[in-house]
Design a protein that fits this description.
This protein is α/β, with parallel strands linked by helices. The chain is built from five helices and eight strands; from the N terminus they run H-H-H-E-E-E-E-H-E-E-E-H-E. The protein folds into two domains: 58 residues; 138 residues, Nucleoside Triphosphate Pyrophosphohydrolase.
Length: 214
């Protein structure tokens, strides 16, 4: 018997759910007609149910993640630091959540510049002090091998120069270390994918590469 035609992947469905979510949220922000507001609330409810089914989890956490936003939806921004030592090794932190490793970083904060956020994240997660000196790229995370999230997310990676500090841990990290490219430990894939890390090493090998802009 012939195989049935391939269906949409989870990533493709999640892309559609995000668009439905954005349309519903924008409608709830700008619509004035009670009828329109009712229809947009219904559309948001459908997006919540679809996202829950795709995530395979409990509905309440997904519903909270979708409904906590207000106003016009924009991408979330994840900032990461690429810090190399004088031997070319990369700084990684061990995430307490899954025991795996990632480039230091996290969500960009309100009222904080990209540079400020990167410096803060490195300090909080590793204890090191750095100075960002170059943008390596703005990446659409799922194009670079990261598993999909409910929210559309961009990643900004900044090359940073080590200027001091002492290695330490935090509530989010259980350790930090310097790793050569052939010694990379298991990665926390929601935060740092092998593809993205390879690109970071390529930028280190060829410092004049232009920034990557997805």
């Amino acid at each position: 018997m012939a195989e049935p035609p391939a269906t949409c992947t989870t990533v493709q469905w999640l892309t559609d759910v995000r668009e439905l979510h954005a349309i519903a949220q924008e409608g709830l922000t700008y619509a004035r007609s009670p009828y329109d507001l009712q229809r947009y609330r219904r559309l948001l409810d459908l997006a919540e149910r679809m996202a829950t089914a795709l995530a395979g989890g409990e509905p309440d956490p997904v519903r909270l993640e979708l409904t906590e936003d207000a106003g016009y939806l924009t991408p979330k921004l994840d900032v990461r630091a690429a810090v190399h030592d004088d031997r070319g090794r990369i700084l990684l932190v061990e995430e307490t959540e899954d025991g795996r490793w990632s480039l230091p970083g996290g969500w960009a904060d309100v009222n904080e510049s990209l540079v400020e956020g990167t410096v803060r994240e490195v300090r909080e997660e590793s204890g090191y002090e750095v100075v960002p000196d170059r943008l390596l790229g703005i990446y659409e995370r799922e194009r670079w091998g990261h598993p999909p999230l409910v929210h559309f997310t961009l990643k900004a990676v900044l090359r940073c120069r080590l200027i001091g500090g002492t290695p330490t841990t935090s509530t989010e990290t259980a350790g930090c270390g310097w790793f050569a490219r052939e010694e990379i430990p298991p990665l926390s894939l929601t935060r740092t994918s092998p593809q993205l890390l390879r690109r970071v090493f390529e930028h280190h090998d060829v410092p004049g590469l232009p920034p990557d802009l997805d």
